[in-house]
C-alpha cells in the first residue's frame, strides 16, 4: 500500500466513528424518510468552475453520512468544514460565515471543547487530483443543516491544524457549495 493511501486510510479510520449500515430490510417508510433527508451541494471554485459534489444524508443510526467527491483539485491536504450560512459568493466565499457550531463548541478535535459540529477531517487529495471520501458525523441533523440560512460545504486552501481558533488556520476558502434538500 502506498504511503499516501496508508495516510488516507489511517486518517479516515482515526477520525471517523464506526456506524451500523442499513441492512436493507425493505421498510418502505424508512426508505421514504431517508430519501427526504438527503441534501446535495454542487461544488465550485471562486471562478465558478465545477469541482465536485457533496451529499449529506441522515441515517437510522442518527449519524449524518457525508460523501465528498472532488475533481480537478491540486494534490495536497485541505481543511474541510460545514459553514453556518448557505451562501457561496465567490471569489472568497466569505458569505458562508464561520464554521457550523453549537453554543460552547470550539474549533478542532484537539480542543478541549471541540470540535465544532461542522469540523470535518482533512482531505488528502492524491496526484490524480480527484478523490471520494465518506464521513459519519454524530449529532448533525437535517434540521441543523437546513435551518433558515442554510449550510455550505467549504474546502480551504491548507490543512486544518485541528486546534487553532476559530478555524484551524486552514487558509483561504477555495471551493464552496450550498447544501440543498433533494
Main features:
182 residues; Immunoglobulin-like; 3 helices; 9 strands; globular; disordered N terminus
Account of the protein in words:
By secondary structure, the chain is α+β, with helices and mostly antiparallel strands. The chain has one domain: Immunoglobulin-like, CATH 2.60.40. Helices cover 14% and strands 32% of the residues. The chain is built from three helices and nine strands. It has helices at 3-15, 28-36, 142-145; strands spanning 38-45, 50-58, 64-70, 76-83, 119-125, 131-137, 152-156, 173-178, 180-181. Strands 1, 2, 3, 4, 5, 6, 7, 8 and 9 form a nine-stranded antiparallel β-sheet that branches. The longest helix is centred in the first third of the chain and has 13 residues, at 3-15.
Q: What's the CATH class, please?
A: Mainly Beta
Strand content: 25-35%
Q: Which of globular, elongated, flat, extended, rod-shaped describes the shape?
A: globular
CATH architecture: Sandwich
Helix content: 10-25%
Tell me the distance between the termini. Answer: 37 Å
Encode the helix/strand succession as letters. HHEEEEEEHEEE
The description of the largest β-sheet is:
9 strands, antiparallel
Query: What is the CATH H-level superfamily?
Result: Superoxide dismutase, copper/zinc binding domain
Q: Which whole number gives the mean pLDDT?
A: 84
Please report the total strand number as a whole number.
9
Contiguous runs where pLDDT drops below 50 for at least 5 residues: 1-36
The fold-level CATH name is: Immunoglobulin-like
Distinct helical segment count: 3
Amino acid at each position: 500500500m502506498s504511503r499516501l493511501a496508508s495516510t488516507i486510510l489511517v486518517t479516515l479510520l482515526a477520525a471517523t466513528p464506526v456506524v451500523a449500515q442499513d441492512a436493507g430490510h425493505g421498510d418502505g417508510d424508512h426508505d421514504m424518510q431517508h430519501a427526504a433527508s438527503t441534501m446535495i451541494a454542487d461544488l465550485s471554485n471562486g471562478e465558478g468552475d465545477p469541482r465536485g459534489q457533496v451529499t449529506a444524508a441522515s441515517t437510522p443510526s442518527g449519524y449524518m453520512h457525508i460523501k465528498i467527491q472532488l475533481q480537478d483539485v491540486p494534490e495536497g491536504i485541505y481543511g474541510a468544514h460545514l459553514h453556518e450560512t448557505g451562501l457561496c459568493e465567490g471569489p472568497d466565499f466569505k458569505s458562508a460565515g464561520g464554521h457550523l457550531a453549537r453554543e460552547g463548541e470550539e474549533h478542532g478535535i484537539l480542543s478541549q471543547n471541540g470540535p465544532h459540529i461542522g469540523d470535518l477531517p482533512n482531505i488528502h487529495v492524491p496526484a490524480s487530483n480527484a478523490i471520494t471520501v465518506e464521513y459519519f458525523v454524530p449529532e448533525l441533523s437535517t434540521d441543523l443543516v437546513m435551518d433558515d440560512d442554510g449550510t455550505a460545504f467549504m474546502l480551504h486552501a491548507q490543512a486544518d491544524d485541528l486546534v487553532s481558533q476559530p478555524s484551524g488556520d486552514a487558509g483561504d476558502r477555495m471551493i464552496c457549495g450550498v447544501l440543498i434538500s433533494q
